[in-house]
Amino acid sequence: MMSYAQWGNALYSGEKSYRIVPKRRIFVRAALAVIAICAILIGIFGLNRSFEFTGGSQFTLTGLSETSQQPAYDAIQKGNLASEVRVSSVGVDGIRVQTESLDSQKTLEVREALASAYKVDAKDVQSASIGPSWGRDVTAKAAQSLVIFLTLVAVLMAAYFRSWTMSVAAIFALFHDIATTLGFFAVTRVEVSPATVIGFLTILGYSLYDTVVVFDKVRELTKGINDQNRYTFGDMVNLAVNQTMVRSLNTSIVALLPVGSILVIGSILLGAGTLTDISLALFVGMIVGTYSSIFIASPLLVMLEERRSSTKAHDALVAKRREREGHTGDDVRVAPVQPGRRLGNEAQPKRKKAR
Fold this sequence. Notes:
Helix content is 65%, strand content 6%. By secondary structure, the chain is an alpha+beta fold. The chain has 2 domains: 15-49 and 134-312, Up-down Bundle (Multidrug efflux transporter AcrB transmembrane fold); 56-130, ACT domain (Alpha-Beta Plaits). Strands 2-3-1-4 form a 4-stranded antiparallel beta sheet.
C-alpha cells in the first residue's frame, strides 16, 4: 500500500492519474444541479438572519448561575411581552434574548421580567435596539461587498492569466462555493450574522487562491501546447490537477485544523457568538472551495477552451496521431518531461587499446 508521500509523487510524475478532466461533463452538471438545489432550498427555507440584519430589540444577561434558556421564554410568554422570541447562550454564563422591535415601555417590562426569571437586578440586563432601516443598510452593504469582490476577481483573473476562460471558470467555481455554503446555512438554520458574511468573503479568497494555484500549473504545462501533437489541452489540464492535488489537500487540512478547533471551542465552551459564526462559515467554505478548484474550475476551463477553433484543430491532430498509433486516448499516459542526467564515466564508450 502506498504511503501519502508515495501517492503524491506518483500523482506528480504521472505514474498515477485520476480521470477528472475526462469526466468533466459529469462534474460540471453536478455543480449546476447543486447550485439549483441550493437556490431552491434558500427560496423555501430562507436564511436565518441575525438581529443585525432584521432589526429588533436585544437583551443580554451575563454572570448567571443558571443559564437554561427556558426561563427566558416563559417570562416573556407569560407576560405576552413579545411575539417573536429567540434565546441563545453567550459564553459559559450568559443569555441573549432577541425580539421584534419594542417601544421603551415594553423594553422596560422585558428587562424586569428577565431579571425576575434569572434572579438578578434589572440594571444588570443590558438592552439594545436596532431599527429596520439599519438592518436593511447592513444587508445592502453585504450584498454590495460580494458583488464588488466578484467583479474585481473577474477582472484580475483575466488580466493575470490573459485568458477570459480562466476568469469565467474561476467565477463559476466561486459562485458554486457561495451557493453551497448558503444552502448549508439555509438547511441547518444556523444564524447568518455580519461575522458570517466576513467568513463568506474569506472563504472566497481561499477558494480563489486554490484555483489560482491549479491554473498556474495549467498555464505552465500548456505553454506552447500547439507545437506538439501528442497531448491535448485536456490531457495537460488533467495532469496539472493531479500534480496540484496533494498541495491543495495539504493546504486545506492545515487550514481546517485551527478553524475546526475554533469552531469546537466557540460552540461548546463559549456558546453561540462571533467565533461560531465565522468559523462555521470558514469550515464549510474551505471544504467546498477545495472541491471546486479541483473538480469544477479545471473541468469547466477545458470545456470552454474546447470551443475555440485553435483548440479544436489541435485536438483533431492529436486524435489522428493516436488513431495511426492504435491508441484510444484512455491508454495514453500523460507525464511531465523528465530532465536528463549525466550517466557517469562508466557509461561512456571505452577506447580500444592500440596494438
